[in-house]
């Protein structure tokens, strides 16, 4: 679809469709299996295969470039595609950081061990952690959200019933994570954070 109408486009190759799509500010990308594609005009351009590509997932669009999480056996990595060279650049995240991601502005966030995520800014990774470190019952970060210029992380665990002590929400505060929405009933677990008309709205699960 372009503007007010629909235009014919060449497919990614039979059969039609892809596992996931991501739209950046100026480009749209898709992935099928371990192959990545970029929308150019009315067609799709096949990109080079990411390294360690026995399995690959299309992550966020960071600074106009798709980020891929790919792995082979027990080894995995994060790579950003360079359009000029059609090469995947190893982002070299800290060890143990390869979870859910978020790209906002020039920053790339990736989740790691419980209570931690890493931020790539100006070519440097910084580990953001909550203090004190969470105990073994606390869930890992499952989603990173941006709302009203702030970055939040929600968590989940295989515990039950749900409660905010074991599935807390964090907010990025400088170079650290801090607990967020601590004034809520502890039986309420936050699943999503958005800004609507200047007000914070939460999608929650009531574990009571």
What does this structure look like?
The chain is an all-beta fold and 208 residues long. It is built from no helices and 18 strands. The protein has a four-stranded antiparallel sheet with strand order 1-2-3-4, with no helix packed on it. The protein has a four-stranded antiparallel sheet with strand order 5-6-7-8, with no helix packed on it. A hairpin with a 2-residue loop joins strand 2 and strand 3 (35-40). It is globular. The N and C termini lie far apart (45 Å).
Describe what is shown at a glance:
This protein has 208 residues and is mainly beta. Helices cover 0% and strands 52% of the residues.
Mean of pLDDT: 86
Q: Quick one: overall form? A: globular
Summing up helix and strand content along with how strands pair, one would put the structural category as mainly beta
For the biggest sheet, the summary is: 4 strands, antiparallel
How would you spell out the order of helices and strands?
Answer: EEEEEEEEEEEEEEEEEE
Low-pLDDT runs: none
Kindly report the spatial arrangement of strands forming the biggest sheet: 1-2-3-4
Number of strands: 18
Q: Distance N terminus to C terminus?
A: 45 Å
- Gyration radius over CA: 19 Å
Strand content: over 45%
Helices, by number, come to: 0
Which percent range fits the helix content? Answer: under 10%
